[in-house]
Amino acid sequence: MEKERGTPNGGLAHLPNYDAVNKLFEEGRTKVWPPGSLEEKVQNLVKTWEMEMFNKTCFDDYKSVDLKNYTFSLNGMKPVTLEEKRKLGGGYNTFLQTTLPEKFRVYNPADETVESAHVAFTTAFPRGFALEVLQVYSGPPVIVYKFRHWGYMEGPFKGHAATGEVVELHGMSIFEVDEHMKVVKVEFFMDRGELLGGLMKGASLDGSAAEAAPACPFLTGTG
């Protein structure tokens, strides 16, 4: 993501632990969609998209998106292209954009690189952060769905100790696809505070984070 070039791992910046996250998914999902159903197809598409956005380094290795026309937007903010995603610092930082003043940001994408963001979240969630589609409201070419992410905080995050508790993130998304089912446009609507609030519940490891968090009146909202 950071340099957007190929790697010896077939264009993967980081090798995700698929066995661990797949086990987490099977044990924790609340929906079991029939094989071949619209819901299963949408879930598979979103999983492939997420894997590529968060792990692949070379744009040419992306199979799920239209490379020339693809854009991503979060909570109505300005859409970004793949090149702009790279400049923002990759998948995690693009997904956690915020309009909060910097002094209130418990996680500040502006201060993170591709590598530092990857280390922060994979350390907190060593078994991964599973995804399931809860409901599909419309099918292609404009796919609208509700999702749930979850994982167990079994490692520290930004000066806060692991809690061992499940941390969740819910939201809605719109995927526009072309006739080849390539994703052209993605819009996400979610509260990043749901994720970050769960990651800041652990005891402070150095004292500084515990003092800073209460100063943010929006931590449980848009964090």
UniProtKB/TrEMBL annotation:
Which InterPro entries does the entry mention? NTF2-like_dom_sf, Pathogen-related_defense
Q: Which Gene3D superfamilies match?
A: 3.10.450.50
Domain of life, per lineage: Eukaryota
Q: What is this protein called?
A: Pathogen-related protein
Query: What broad taxonomic lineage does this protein's source fall under?
Result: Eukaryota, Viridiplantae, Streptophyta, Embryophyta, Tracheophyta
